[in-house]
Design brief:
Layout: H1 18-34, H2 45-56, H3 61-73, H4 78-92, H5 98-113, E1 129-130, H6 131-147, H7 152-155, E2 156-162, H8 170-188, E3 194-198, E4 201-207, H9 212-229, E5 241-246, H10 251-261
Parallel strand pairs: 1-3
Antiparallel strand pairs: 2-4, 2-5, 3-4
């Protein structure tokens, strides 16, 4: 398996035991249909180890940790890696094993940190842009509004999400970040600049319209539902805070606002 952006590996999938092979293929099919970006880099030997562990009723932690490390070092986002393991348990018809999620997240972080360089415009845990990048997108928003004879405070706003909790261990913070990143993509899709402002606090740049408050409430519901599915409800602030933040008159003030929201 190689880091994404390099040459694509041939997707070799060994035969394995009949039962294991059947579960592995059901897992692969579910993941490729719903969450996985590139079919050619899904397989890794740790996939078989994890399948064998769950089929045999053994603890999945070691295999999940190994798979997480492989995903992180290969350039797979944590959200994609977590969603992939969710597909395994869906194929089994069982609830997601929280210990498997924990081990995968820890392994992913170790694998990711071993890669020499990362793009500075992306937060590795969530796959979202950084606050600095969102500040530049705000600059574009203010400029466009001015050219159109309007103001950014009239045309746009921020939807802010706060799930922050104190005293969380590292793996729960990472798993929560990945879950929220994927949820923001689900709810808003492409075309909405979004960023992580600090641990547990996120912002999305949206058009200022009558439907935006309803979209914010949809975000709240989906965040809480996804957290329940992944066994991360205890890692989220309850109730989840979501609100619409109006933009100030000047771009410099908007950048300052991002800093204040992230504190």
């Amino acid at each position: 398996m190689v880091a994404r952006g390099g040459e694509q590996n041939v997707n070799r999938t060994p035969a394995g035991a009949p039962g294991d092979a059947d579960l592995r293929e059901r897992w692969r099919a579910a993941s490729l249909a719903d969450v996985w970006l590139r079919p050619g880099d899904w397989y890794h030997p740790a996939v078989d180890a994890l399948v064998e562990a769950v089929e045999a009723g053994r603890g999945p932690e070691a295999a999940a940790h190994r798979l997480g490390a492989a995903r992180g070092s290969a350039g797979v986002g944590m959200g994609e890696a977590l969603d992939d393991v969710t597909c395994l348990y869906r194929a089994l018809g069982r609830p997601v094993d929280v210990e498997a999620v924990r081990a995968l997240a820890v392994g992913w972080a170790e694998g990711h940190e071993a890669v020499p360089a990362h793009a500075v415009v992306r937060d590795p845990g969530t796959g979202l842009a950084t606050a600095e990048y969102l500040g530049e997108r705000l600059r574009e928003t203010y400029g466009q509004a001015e050219r159109e004879g309007s103001t950014a405070s009239e045309t746009s706003c921020l939807v802010v999400l706060d799930v922050a909790l104190d005293d969380l261990d590292a793996w729960r913070r990472m798993a929560r970040a990945a879950t929220v990143g994927r949820t923001l993509d689900q709810v808003f899709g492409t075309g909405h600049p979004m960023a992580v402002l600090s641990d547990g606090i996120y912002a999305v740049l949206c058009p200022r319209s009558q439907g935006t408050p309803q979209l914010a409430q949809t975000l709240r519901r989906v965040v809480e539902k996804n957290a329940e599915i992944l066994g991360l409800a205890g890692a989220m602030r309850r109730p989840t805070r979501v609100w619409v933040e109006h933009l100030p008159a000047a771009h410099a003030d908007a950048v300052e606002l991002l800093g204040q929201l992230g504190r």
